[in-house]
């Protein structure tokens, strides 16, 4: 596994950490807000925990210094390392939406369902989510706030659609909005925005309402977990909504033709490929594999089909 630590200062005492999911660079980003009460947003997978620990050490944050760990949602590429990080930083409070809190305290059911989906590659991709002492978990509801010290706050906003336990996080000082997966994935090499619509929670109208909520917050910058900072806020959120609609319409057509999942995915991939520069410009096999692991067409189509079946 490639465990080289990559830390990028983003201004406003915010540092992007490449958390190296499965050893890949540029696939999962965590963020350290180095305020009076240091806060780690999106610790990444269990396998990422040593990488994150090295980055925090480089930035002068020791075991007793980290005040909070916050996740946008409990999918394992975002929250799989929470238990490990909680052990490494025993003073840190863990903040998550109330619909995800019990899974961080007792992750057995979450891990069982993840193993059904990923099989043996689960260990390579994510590792094992360890339980966190429930007394250290703070569950937020539709809105909440994390004290960053010095009057600075990280404000949480419930933003389901990608997952029913998803929150966006707004920094009161910088105007940064941590979007998790609610705005899809951003590919920095090509500036593409692709939807993230995995089963079982994806819902189009809910996701679009969350994007509208993000627009209404008027953030200065979007910080994607996949991957990095984006300053073109309005345009990017509009593109995210457009991509969701395009994919859902394409899957509806495939479903109307009675196609099974694999054939539907092939049709959707063919129909949408010209929307993304990455299709033409990213030719390195490892990079292609990386983005397929992160944002596979089959997984997206399966999530949309599940949503369509639910509404039918």
From TrEMBL:
Residues 27-226 form the Metallo-beta-lactamase domain. Keywords: Hydrolase. GO terms for molecular function: hydrolase activity. The keyword 4Fe-4S does not apply. It holds the Pfam family Lactamase_B. InterPro entries: Metallo-B-lactamas, NDM-1-like, RibonucZ/Hydroxyglut_hydro, ST1585_MBL-fold. It comes from the Bacteria. It comes from Actinomadura rudentiformis. This is MBL fold metallo-hydrolase. The lineage of its organism: Bacteria, Bacillati, Actinomycetota, Actinomycetes, Streptosporangiales. Transmembrane segments: none annotated.
């Amino acid at each position: 596994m490639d465990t080289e630590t990559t830390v990028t200062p983003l201004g406003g005492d915010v540092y992007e950490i490449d958390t190296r999911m499965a050893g890949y660079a540029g696939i999962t980003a965590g963020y350290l807000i180095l305020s009076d009460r240091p806060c780690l947003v999106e610790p990444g997978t269990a396998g990422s925990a040593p990488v994150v620990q090295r980055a925090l050490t480089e930035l002068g944050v020791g075991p007793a210094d980290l005040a909070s760990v916050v996740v946008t949602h409990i999918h394992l590429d975002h929250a799989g390392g929470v238990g490990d990080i909680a052990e490494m930083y025993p003073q840190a409070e863990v903040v998550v939406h109330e619909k995800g809190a019990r899974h961080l305290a007792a992750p057995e059911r979450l891990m069982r369902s993840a193993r059904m989906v990923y099989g043996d590659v689960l260990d390579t991709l994510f590792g094992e989510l360890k339980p966190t002492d429930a007394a250290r978990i703070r569950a937020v509801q539709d809105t909440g706030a994390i004290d960053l010290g010095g009057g600075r706050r990280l404000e949480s906003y419930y933003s389901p659609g990608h997952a029913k336990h998803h929150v966006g996080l707004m920094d009161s000082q910088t105007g940064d909005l941590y979007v998790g997966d609610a705005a899809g994935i951003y590919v920095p090499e090509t500036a593409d925005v692709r939807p993230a619509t995995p089963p079982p929670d994806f819902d189009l109208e809910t996701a679009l309402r969350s994007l509208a909520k993000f627009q209404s917050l008027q953030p200065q910058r979007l910080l994607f977990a996949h991957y990095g900072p984006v300053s073109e806020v309005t345009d990017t959120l509009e593109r995210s909504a457009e991509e969701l609609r395009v994919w859902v319409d394409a899957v509806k057509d495939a479903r109307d033709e009675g196609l099974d999942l694999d054939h539907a995915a092939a049709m959707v991939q063919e129909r949408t490929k010209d929307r993304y520069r990455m299709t033409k410009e990213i030719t390195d096999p490892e990079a292609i594999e990386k983005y397929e692991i992160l944002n596979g067409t089959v997984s997206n189509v399966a999530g949309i089909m599940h949503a369509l079946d639910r509404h039918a």
